[in-house]
Structures
1.
Amino acid sequence: MSSASTAILTLVLVFGAFLTAQCHGDSAPLVVGFYRGKCRSIDVEAVVSGVIKEWYKKDPTITAALLRMQFHDCFVNGCDASILLDGSNSEKTAVPNLSVRGYEIIDTAKAVVEAICPGVVSCADIIVMATRDAVAMSGGGGGGGKYIVETGRRDGSVSLAKNVDLPSPSISVSNSIKAFANKGLNPTDMVYLLGGHTVGITHCSLIRDRIYNFQNTGKSDPNMDSALLTTLTARCPQNSSTSIDNSVNLDQNPLSSMTVDNSYYRQIVKRRGVLQIDQDLALDPLSNNTVAAIANGFDFSTRFGQAMIKLGGVQVLTGKQGEIRRSCRATNKQTRED
Ligand code: HEM
Ligand SMILES: *[C@@H]1O[C@H](CO)[C@@H](O)[C@H](O)[C@H]1NC(C)=O
Ligand SMILES: *[C@@H]1O[C@H](CO)[C@@H](O)[C@H](O)[C@H]1NC(C)=O
Ligand SMILES: CC(=O)N[C@H]1CO[C@H](CO)[C@@H](O)[C@@H]1O
């Protein structure tokens, strides 16, 4: 092909791609500070932050609640607040969602922003902003500061329990890497994001196999530190006849179980991981070197924030897609029909 015809072909291709982008121009990139100037001169992010600060003073466990909520929202049908929709068959009714909490926090933040500027701020953005604020209150987010979130998400209208396909606590590191890759997140992102387990709890029902009958051996997980095994045995009796399902801190350093820091990694390298995936992360050759580097002080705070920003970009609705819900618990169509 002559260089002239190559040039023409290139032009046609580039222009064609440009036209295609225009035709599919319902979406727009997320941006930092999307709400600037969209609610008079009011700083919407500061308003949300105020709500989270008040809530955190009463209940510092909201950081764990919101981190898990953002993970579950973004992993199922993208970060579109589908996890917030009520309904007999919606995502929040699916088994892995049973213990997701914090819905009232989002309701409160939404009520406050709706009172100031109705129909402007999406529920999907509120989840991401609120999580960032709570992480900052818990000491995370880059030198004690906040990571800078991008905004401009819009809310979805599809929320189905059958779409919920979240990793189980016994997923292997290699399958977990695949699950994250399906969302555009690389293995390093995954290792940092699992650092979310530096706060919060799990229920005994999800770790009893590791304590008493690991992979049907009738024994505990051989990779579990013996002191941790003693602690967990006491906290999670084998044959608890009651329906009470005790909780156990995911970060087993008692001084740090409420703080967003690298302590989770320091624990798992000492074989003090609580969930099976936590322990395996420190041992599997696919992730052990990254874990060791973070445990030794490699920049957790900044990198965790960056990974959260990336998580917040998974399959988002933007531009003219979706809607800005009036109530985070219902689509606008449902709200009108009520
Ligand atoms: C392979 C990936 C993951 C698996 C298998 C997993 C699994 C789990 C399980 C089983 C629990 C305990 C639930 C309960 O007993 O109530 C839990 C809790 C939690 N997860 Fe994950 N998780 C994963 C990734 C993440 C990510 C990426 C984040 C956030 C960035 C996250 C944040 C949390 C938090 C904060 C809690 C504690 C919630 C609370 O205290 O209410 N997890 N996770
Ligand atoms: C729990 O139940 C199993 C099976 O019934 C039994 O083998 C085991 O000894 C019991 N453990 C305790 C601590 O009672
Ligand atoms: C990670 O695992 C590989 C393979 O087992 C091993 O050679 C390496 O030393 C491990 N790295 C760390 C930091 O333990
Ligand atoms: C928060 C929430 O909606 N939890 C629901 C989880 O699913 C169970 C069973 O479907 C419901 O009873 C809960 O209300």
2.
Amino acid sequence: MSNSAVAVPAAKPRPQHAPLTQFEVAGDELLVGGMPLTRLAARVGQTPFYVYSRAAMTARVQELRRHLPPEIHLHYAMKANPMPAVVQHMAGLVDGLDIASGGELAVALDTPMSPDFISFAGPGKSDSDLTRAIAAGVTLNLESEGEMERAAIIGRQLGVVPRVAVRVNPDFELKSSGMKMGGGPKQFGVDAERVPEMLARIGELKLDFQGFHIFSGSQNLKVAALQEAHEKTFALAIRLAAHAPTPLKTLNIGGGFGIPYFPGEERLDLAAVGANLKAMLPDVLPQLPGVEIVIELGRYLVGEAGLYVCRVVDRKVSRGQVYLVTDGGLHHHLSASGNFGQVIRKNYPVVIGNRVRGTERETVSVVGPLCTPLDLLADQMELARADVGDLVAVYQSGAYGLSASPSGFLSHPNAVEVLV
Ligand SMILES: *Cc1c(COP(=O)(O)O)cnc(C)c1O
């Protein structure tokens, strides 16, 4: 057999990042909040920084309102981005805030959002957390029977009837999720099979029962998986509602809508998710009369609205491979480095912010200043040719960025955050 007869398999096309259009490009430079990135860096006064765009967040909420049935209430899960200015902006757009710590409670209470539409989830609420939340009048998403008993005692001491919902650990999980938070044994919520007994106790304790919180997972891009989770969530809620001391006022069905981070990931088909929910509601709502259905979203609301920007401080070549060494890295942006729960490290979308397309291209690795090989922002990625002083911009950085990173590690200067 001659060599020419051997079939050479066609090279598989490399998976690409989903197209990102949230920031305009003018003169080959990113425009953020109407300002070229280099000028924005001068305005901020330092690199590295995070920049979040009000316009992008507003547009995302409008898109959700367009596609979700009008009966669905939209909450912002603050842990995705707790910057007070961001939370203020979101509070004017959404119907409620979901918090998961005493610190987040304080930020949420500084916004105009009524405590009636603030709910507090999270295992391990201390007596101090419970006291503050009950005094504020926010809803406690109870994570255990023990928490329920402590809340009842604190409520009696304060002379305030605690508003409570039960966080249910469902008997199913959200399939193909980046992070599973329900199904099987979990530290979150109360196992569905124990909830009827707990509801009876809520009646005895005369707590102000609001409803259920059923959150089954996060970072999901699959319409079918979300549809299945929503169907099972409604069925579970209807089943448990039969044991409730009073009719459900709210049913928080979680969220889990994902955004495309990595090559090959496709944007969630929001229109299809909305259409599926619309089809379910005529069956669900009559079985839960008067209920308000809530979807709580974090990264889907803010993740695409943010960039992380750092500056190239050195350019070096090691055995043929180009390294751009920047002043930013995993100490500010653990998730982009691949160390925030990812199993296999993949590149976030990264560009040279002041040479987005760039006529000259090269394959480089972008690293940070930390003395650890984990400090990697882009691994062998094709970018415009960059030099010392150029700006590296990491997309999809509006959620789980600075507040989810070990900023003390290696004692480099902190990043700042701006909202434009
Ligand atoms: C983290 C969290 C969210 C937000 O998740 P996203 O993936 O950012 O949308 C929502 N609800 C609960 C209970 C959470 O713990």
3.
Amino acid sequence: MNWTAGQILFFLVAGGKVPSVKHSIPTLKCPNLEMGFRLQAALKMSVKIISFTVLTAILMWSIDVSSVPETHLIVPLQQEEAPFEDSSTSKDNDKKLEYHPIYHKKNHAKKDAHEIPCLINGNSFISCRKTTSGAIYLPWNFLYEYFEVSGWEESNGTFCFQHSYATVQKLKPVYKPSSSFMNFGGFNVGRRDRVRCITATEGVPLTTQWNEAGYHYPIQVAQYGLSHHAKSEMVGEPRQEILEDGEGTKDGAPGPWIVHKKAENSGLSLAQDSETSMNVLQFKTSDSLSAPGIFMPVQDHNLSCLSMDIKFASNGSVSVLVIVSNGARVRIHYIQSDTLIVSDSDQSNIYYGLGKQRTGAWIHLARDLSLDVLKGIKLREQLESKEKKEWMLTKVLEIRLRGQGMLDNLKLKSDVHKDQFFYTADWFVRHQDEKGGWPIPCPRKLIGTAVLQPGWYSAMGQGQALSVLARAFFMTGHQPYLDAAARGLWLFDVDSSQGGVKAVFFDRYVWYEEYPTQPSSFVLNGFIYSLLGVYDFKEVAQGKEKLVAERIYQAGMTSLKAMLMMFDSGVGTLYDLRHVVIGMEPNRARWDYHTTHIELLMQLAIIDGDPIFKKTHKRWQRYLKGQWARHN
Ligand SMILES: *[C@@H]1O[C@H](CO)[C@@H](O)[C@H](O)[C@H]1NC(C)=O
Ligand SMILES: *[C@@H]1O[C@H](CO)[C@@H](O)[C@H](O)[C@H]1NC(C)=O
Ligand SMILES: *[C@@H]1O[C@H](CO)[C@@H](O)[C@H](O)[C@H]1NC(C)=O
């Protein structure tokens, strides 16, 4: 038996017993939603005592000589009182734990221990260790899988143990449907690996999650928009540098553009656009990407986003030359094509399609150039985090125009969050169908239910769209946003069996289905997101539409309050109610969904004073630390 360096053992004093946690490998693959996967952010050591007579300790074990620090025997725990408080009366999330350093390197050297077989629940053996003092050690790599817990070694040699790998994010104490949506400011939707790119045609993410060809997933689009809305609110107005505004320099000349000597029939001038009466830069040169075009070198700065208004009169393009952290120069071309993204094999040129034939109308182009570079590199493969660092944009070097047209408001900016948000809101207005829905073009199957055929609607997609549109309307007063949101409600009143999103639990409680499956699945998080969307809309709506939204919202809240406890397993939460509906095994929410459930209840507790939300999210927080509900 080779104990490799750094294997970590979980120690149980003789006489203690392994807490009897039923170990079941989840066999149900839940659809991975558009939630961030929050990993091991919290470093706070927090250990729960599992059994009254048990002292537990975590220690480092290393047999081979290696760089791993040898023994840091730090955290035996002790608890005298009854192991579980009644969770409903417990005031504090964290019980005070006493930490007694009882083992030390000196009296607990590795040679002190020998291997013994360890029989796991009567059917398999693993190799354990026993010291001369009688202490038994189980290998950590067994324990963490067996008990589904987390642990890692800090650089200072401390081993940190946690039941949960996910952490709960804080929310603002007040919820306003006009301001940041929950904690979405922390999401980086565009950077997720399954997002192929942010299209230049419409400025929204294209996902490859369920279809390699790429498609727009309304939930992801909404979350992208809401995250940029929240980021914009967090950082305030971006820093910016105006490179061209068509107003001319002091002596009435255009900005520092360079026209190549050999470029025939090329030129630029200041002019007025007859459509908008704005002063603009008019440019004329060859369309060809191999021609030098007209370019402007960019001064030293640290701005990585680009924004401009451009109107082409020919098949022109915009190219940006950037340098990335590994020293490579990359050209990003925004061209008139339907191909959304393509790159050269050596990644020196990345092409984003603006759509075919985008001549004759103003285009507002706002791009996060660092993201555009990243998505262009190794288009179909996922980048390692090391590679992501290598391909970070460090500087914009120049901007180049080709073809004929007009340009205005050319700026480099520290961010384009607002543009990214409005691209999203506009996408929802543009792509709503006659049922008021945003159909999903991929089939979906949840185990135990019939396949959702392409064209299905998600209550979560509808609801998150409402959250986007309500905010866009609040910021602009632009009626089409509000009208689209009002139509977005229609499907909430249509049964899932009829192509809508409404299900009814035991003929009594309406539920808005994230996946409107047959039979119904009753997914918790998607339902609450949909309710938040309806809430946002009802807060900005007026008249008849407000009343409709109120009715839909109240019916949903009544169901939620009545049904919430069905999702509580006493040690965690359940993702959906398929175990009730179709009798399959309960679908446990993995930790990041459990924390999502907690955050959603925290949000509802702020909106609705019913104590069920507060009481429940507090108990669910305790599950994160292994403090389970009382047993009989
Ligand atoms: C080591 O790091 C952990 C986590 O950052 C910290 O809580 C702990 O106090 C540190 N231990 C020592 C001995 O410095
Ligand atoms: C970028 O430049 C601005 C102004 O020169 C400066 O205030 C800011 O701290 C810089 N930011 C970074 C991340 O270097
Ligand atoms: C326009 O130019 C792009 C390259 O800039 C090219 O891919 C596309 O085919 C051209 N379209 C037409 C209609 O010529």
4.
Amino acid sequence: MMKFRQEIVEIVEGVLRPGGEPIALHEPEFSGVEEELVLDCIRSSFVSSVGKYVDQFEHELASICGVDHAVAVVNGTAALQVALRLSGVRPGSEVIMPSLTFVATANAAHYLGGLPHFVDISEDTLGVNPIALRNHLNRVTDKRTGRLINRDTGRPIDAIVPMHAFGHPSDLDGLLEVADEFNLPLIEDAAEALGSRWRGKSCGSFGSMGALSFNGNKIITTGGGGAILTDDAELAHQAKHLTTTAKVLHRWAFSHDEIGYNFRMPNLNAALGVAQLRQIESRIRSKRNLAKRYQNAFSDFGHGYCFEERPEAQSNYWLNALVLNPEVADARDEVLESLHEVGVMARPAWEPLHQLSIYRDCPRDDLPVTEGLARRIVNLPSSSFLGELYCG
Ligand SMILES: *Cc1c(COP(=O)(O)O)cnc(C)c1O
């Protein structure tokens, strides 16, 4: 077993060639005009809820993602929360989602009084498996008065939220079909997948709405931030309204026509975002280069593989994932320890949400693939500069 751990360390060191310095899992990078635009923003004094950078960021983001509208907000969790609310999630709603995701996906539903309803994923995509989802919905739901009701709980199921894990697109063909069949809105948690594509179309642009995150560990960062993507002008208008305290437009009057949120992205963060967005294409190139290097390095490894995109997908490879074979899954934490010993800050995948005490009692299907995979994943350092270093 010692030998197998040592082999992983040597392969990873071969890809990263560490010079003794610790290598983080994912670092923010500021190699463009960040300082210039942030300074300009400070000097303009419009650092907060008003200013040109928010509009510019939204327009450029929408254009990159191939959608008509982007609404910038304070973080990805808030983007999901507002997208779910505008999709009809209410107190008592169940929201279909994977269990192998960051806790924010479930929290967003919970903040609205809804409950996550966990379904299994596919080993091919690491995202929700549409076939298992269809079977599950056929088994546990009734259509009553135009709504889909979970027969076991009596509660309505009101939305499907696929999550594109580590930047890899879920099977959007299959998921859109199921959403259509059961007449459910599909909202993508594309927090990790800015720039990823499925059949050439951007992640976040498939459902009625998509949510992005620009947290410090994502492919581009605004310090903290998020966005809602949509092609629907009315939804975009409502998202902007709801995230800006639902203030009625007027030159001086303070009037609010519903209970909104203070979720607007500050102009200062948007300035950073405008500079970061200009680097998205080169970052994706570097990350794909790094992923290739990991995949090649692990191609003869007998105890697992580096996850590779499906033929329909072009992934941003936000985080590389080494998937250990089931027979060595129990050694995962020792692998993590060996990597940390040489300064490689690898990390396991999230603990599946249905195994957390806070979400243990939520409705769910059987989750054999989720439970199997969660124990076998080791995320490897994936900052885009690591892919630039040895391009040759
Ligand atoms: C990062 C992330 C979010 C939310 O992001 P924040 O901006 O940190 O609120 C949501 N879902 C997933 C899967 C994420 O990785």
